[in-house]
Input
Amino acid sequence: MRESDVKALTVILGSGGVSEGVRDVLTDLSAAGLISPFLWVEQTGDASVVGADDAIEVVGGVERSVRLQDVLASRVLDRVRVCVVVPAAAGSVPVGSAFERAVAELVSSNSGGAQVTRMRLLLHRPGDDVSAATVWAPAGWHNLVVAPEDSRGPGMGHRTLQSTADPIDLGRHTAPVLASVAGLWVDVEHVPLDDLPVLPGNALRVVRSYYRRLDTSGAEDELRRRVLDFGGQLPLPSGTGASVVYANDVASATSRMAQLVWSRHRHLLEGRRVAPPPVAPRQEIGLGEAIRVFLSFLGAVIRNAPAALFARVVKTLSSTVASRTENALFGAESAYKLVVNGVDADGRPAGWSEYEVASKRIAAKLDAAAGRAPAAQSATADLSDLWRDFRRGALTLADAGERSPDLPPVQVGAHAAVLRSATDVVPGPADRFTEIPGIVSATIDVHAVDAADVLGISEFSEKLSALEADPTLGLEVRRTNAALRTWADRLGQSYAVAFGGILAQRLSTTLGEVRSLVERIEGAAPPEDLVEVTARRHRKLVRKVQALTLGFAVVAVIAGVLAGADVVSWWTGGTVIALSLLGWCGTVARAFMSEQQQLQRLLAEQEAAAVARETDQENLRAALRDVECQSAAYRQYLSWSRALGAFLANPLGASADARPAGRTVEWGLPLSVVVASSSPEPEQVERLAEQLRHDLLGIGWLSDQWDALVSNAAGELGASGRDLRRNPALLTEQPGVGSGSALDEWSALLHEGRAEAGGAAVLWERARTELALSGGELPGRIAGVVEFHEDGVVRRGSLGEFLAGVGTDSVSEDRSFFDRSIFTDLASTKGLTAVEISASDTAPAGLGLVAVTTQFTEGIVEEDLRLRAVGPDSQSAPTEVARAFDLPIRPAERSVGQQVPVPAAYAVPVADGLNF
Output
């Protein structure tokens, strides 16, 4: 288990007196955010009983009374560290051994099987008289004597700490050592005793510790802002090959990408049209068939039934199709007016969003009139491939990543190129047109216009133009219209607007086609009923044939009578009769052929009209379906433009939470503990930010950010996004603006700022990793000059001078020694003052660091220490130990403006013979 995963609790035992100084300093360190929470248990009453409210929990410098058993029972703990503060000087009251055992046993039995580390910190300085009641090294504990010394770092010189009864002086040198051995320092896992075995018998060790903390919160916030906040300008991604540059010809780059996307998917938005079939070749009739038909015609004439003959010959073409078509169109009168005339039911200009519903109504009535099933193609056709490529095109223009071989990045010479501004790719929420005066907005009922809404901008401009002559609103309307045109021209070269313009143009063209087809169908003359027409014409023909027959018959009869009466010869009479018969046949045949030609012409005209009508109706259905599909596609385009615009405007989302600035500690810290800050020059931060961007933002870097945003869509939508949790790809199939779909709701959340990308925290963690892996090269730039306080005096130095070897284990290279003042001469001679164990840890704290080094001697015994016992059984009286002159450590009041004693200047002795 990693140390960072360990759930630990630190319990510190004290007995009042000088121990209170240790608690006060620990509380101050907690308030400064340097150490983690701890429990302080103070012995009161019976030395072997732990009271009800026996502990004080210190969190962030705030104390509150708790019950030790309640804390143990309410937490899952892996390790509990019990530390006893043992003041050894005469006059101090140490924690009783029975109380130590009682607390340790309580922790062991009530901590749920957590590992328990027991340690005792003995406070002893040179010249202290030691109380005979002090227990130095009970078995089973890490018995540690705090070294009475203070120095900058390992291996450096030190100053000896003299005997004192001041609890604060003891506390400020003891508390840092306790925090090190008990693992209390925050942001670093420094627990040197967890894996160190307890010395056997009554052995003990001498311990000292060094601590460094470099706070770079101010510089880190500035660096984070420069790395993560693009300010609307897209960064140049880094590539392994040729460098990436900015494209200067924005209009060419965006229009080319939009055309590539459209050409790949236009078949999804343009249905197939039907062409009229070629004219059938004229049917040739043979001689025999012609004679047969003619004889049949003659028989019909004789029977007076030519209409029945033509009824059988003519294939009747019904006119009910045309009538049903017309009824279907005018049966949906409001939809017809909207599609054909461009006005709604109230006579006002129709908006683009109304065409989709109107075309659906007309198409449904046409299909019903023709007895057809609903069309297979609908406005909810799967356009996911189109919007996948639309997104790919936008991201490629922004980061030069080749996501499809059909949509390559822009090339400028041999270099891949990106657009400079996110607005040039897809305008974001900040690019909306909102310069609409209140009175104009209330009149037109338009409060803002999206830059990607090409049709919406056009409709808004038309509404403004219609009001320019208004005497009340005219001035404001003209100003608004001029501002709208300027704004639209500025954003008109973006990729989203270019693609939206293609969609809008295609929808406008399809609507024009629908109007043309409807007008052609409506203007076509209704076909005549061929049965009725032929019957009427044939009645006339019969009367004509009958008259001719009667005439020729009369001539033939007269010729026969005259020949029979020998008025004329039979050759003459027969010739006249034969000529009459032939004339009758020729005349009737000519009449028949003329009528047959007229019949064929009528049949061809009716057939051509029927075919043209069927073709127009089929194309009208296809065009209406295209209007549905293109209107739905435009809705989806608006939704994806909103989502992409909001994303590209801030592709990383909100910046990672700033680290709280560490509190400046100006007074009271020993030399071994230094808390510093770093404030680099802005140029250093900018150079470091540029290098981090180069390392973090490679070609195609937006893909991960966008995928994370889409994957999180289900969480943003709540219950309405339950299907997306299983398959986020379903988002591309959702209908667009105004549908209330998951896509519509999600894009609105992004557009309104109620949802955003969350890549800032991830990218910043990667930045920290880059800094950590740089071997100190990059952090060294941001921590070039370190500033800290020493007893109120500001000091500055380099990072190396600040660390002074803390956090690095260098005992093997330079064997150092503890202060010898508390060791006996024999122990010093045997080398027991040498550092035997040196535990060092360094951890990043943001861009700063925390470094701790704790050093121990090898195991020694009580006899190796210079001790003077004082008590009832002591054989020697206490001896006064002269104290060296100490500088004031922490004055009770600031001395600014007060008289400070100045030591006399050194006087050089003057020689006077043998006397001085």
In short: The CA atoms of residues 227 and 689 lie 5 Å apart. The radius of gyration is 51 Å. Residues 570-649 form the longest helix (80 residues).
